[in-house]
Amino acid sequence: MFVARSIHADHKDLIHDVAYDFYGRRLATCSSDQSVKIWDVGEDGQWHCTASWKTHSGSVWKVTWAHPEFGQVIATCSFDRTAAVWEELVIDNSGGERSQSHWVKRTSLVDSRTSVTDLKFAPKHLGLQLATCSSDGIIRIYEAPDVMNLSQWSLQNEISSKLSCSCLTWSPSRVHPPMIAVGSDDANPSAGGKILIYEYNDNTRRWVKVESIMTVTDRVHDIAFAPNLGRSYHLLAAAAKDVRIISLKPLNIDQTSTAVQTSVPKFEIRQVGQFDDHNSQVWRVSWNITGTILASSGDDGCIRLWKGNYLDNWKLVSTLQGDGSAVTGDKSPAPSSSISSTPYYKLGQITGPGQVPWH
Hints:
By secondary structure, the protein is mostly beta strands.
């Protein structure tokens, strides 16, 4: 069964993001108080703050972990128009006390002229790459050529989306070309689709926009590709006015042919789920490790779990309040043991307008 644990984070302002590390044993939180805190779970199951420091000169919107193969590394982005990469140095206390970690800023990425709204490390098989997006519609791809020297990052690509960007996600697939989906919170209703799909072309060494998902016209607050464990297509979840689940099935196109143009559809796009159960803005979507269950959180203060079958029919399987208890009168079936034991990458809720911050 689900067990909720409250963390008294002691941030002095709104908490905007919560991120688990790869193993789910560490947690990072960031806030408008310009700080980041690192939490480690103890043997007693309680979370202990092992580091806290000021990271930016403005609100910190997002924090994300690199794969542990590259060390204990996080990246943060802020309203102050910068993104930063931090690496942990562990100080061993010989007195038997809990070891305190010290996080060092390895680099500051200052190319953006507006607020950096989101950032994500690439899947491990693509090396140590970091994608950022800004409110001016620019997506930037950085790479650390030497993983032993994280002070050196080079700007590999710069993509103009022509829409205000609010969130992004990397496709985790190893068998398809590298792909990034970007969500927009552009307020202009005539801007069209608010989800853009970019794919890396090995021949030109450039990122090319291959799709614009026109069915999503509301502001997008969060976006996430599902883990790909043998699936021949992509699943993409988006948090907007409601929860959207979109299937992108690659079409059989000869990628080596010079006749292939970017105007040719690359995917068969199908919306396999649209749910307004939150009855309010949805702020976060997060997949479990197998990509079979989606968690969403919204302004109603609830976390809802969605599960799909082999036909890609999705339905609500559980609704939880912020304290982890089931919603009174909820008609969704109680989660089975197989669902409740499924680990999650991340299940943090953004603090948006009208929401109660974690404390």
